[in-house]
Design goal:
By secondary structure, the chain is of the alpha/beta class. Helix content is about 40%, strand content about 20%. A 7-stranded mixed sheet has the order 1-2-7-6-3-5-4, sandwiched between helices. The structure holds ligand AR6. Ligand AR6 binds near residues 23, 34, 43 and 166.
Length: about 180
């Protein structure tokens, strides 16, 4: 499992950082940066739907949509991951529309869903930092702070992977995680 993947460990192994494609990771759940329709799109959403196959959009249609800051769960179908957690990040509108609060909610709700299912490893992409335009540095801080706080408070036994597709995000996560943990 993930033998060929090079990653860094933090928080006693509870958090892992890797640069790469989330659709290839062998984990129990991957978290999709979806939109409110849940019907697929570009970016990581498109990549996940392509890798999971057409059954994924059918499962999403049955759910019917998801509000910004919330999360829903489906099977992973053709993915290695058994589940996909779909969360809808905020569109960056300048920072005065509760964007950080909504982004934190995406991480929290996804982790809550994970804790309610047999999920021992969950992988996040950098939600909202692509098409939705959330500044990467601020988004990395929200992602790391929200996740580590959740792990401390909830005693979640899952390993959390942060999967960075681009070098800029990877370097930001590496620097924040290394300085804190
Ligand atoms: N694996 C991991 N991360 C990825 C991958 C991948 N295969 N591909 C891209 N990323 P984005 P958003 C990173 O735009 O900003 C969709 O159309 C990417 O580098 O996918 O939340 C949805 O349907 C970036 O850091 O999601 C929505 O309409 C991060 O994933 C909208 O885009 C998020 O970029 C959501 O926008």
């Amino acid at each position: 499992m993930n033998k060929e993947i090079v990653f860094q460990e933090f928080l006693g192994g509870r958090v892992r950082l890797v640069e790469g494609d989330i659709t290839r990771l062998d984990v129990d759940a991957i978290v999709n940066a979806a939109n409110k329709s849940l019907l697929g799109g570009g970016g990581v959403d498109g990549a996940i739907h392509r890798a999971a196959g057409p059954q994924l959009v059918e499962a999403c249609k049955k759910i019917g949509g998801c509000e910004t800051g919330n999360a829903v769960i489906t099977p992973g179908f053709n993915l290695k991951a058994r589940y996909v957690i779909h969360t809808v990040g905020p569109v960056w509108q300048g920072g005065n529309h509760d964007e950080p609060g909504l982004l934190a909610s995406c991480y929290r709700k996804s982790l809550e869903l994970a804790s309610q299912h047999p999920i021992k490893s969950i992988a996040f992409t950098n939600i909202s930092t692509g098409i939705y335009g959330f500044p990467k540095e601020a988004a990395a801080q929200v992602a790391i702070n929200t996740t580590t706080k959740f792990l401390e408070i909830n005693d979640l036994s899952s390993i959390v992977w942060f999967v960075c597709f681009d070098k800029e995000n990877y370097n930001l996560y590496l620097s924040h995680l290394s300085s804190k943990y």
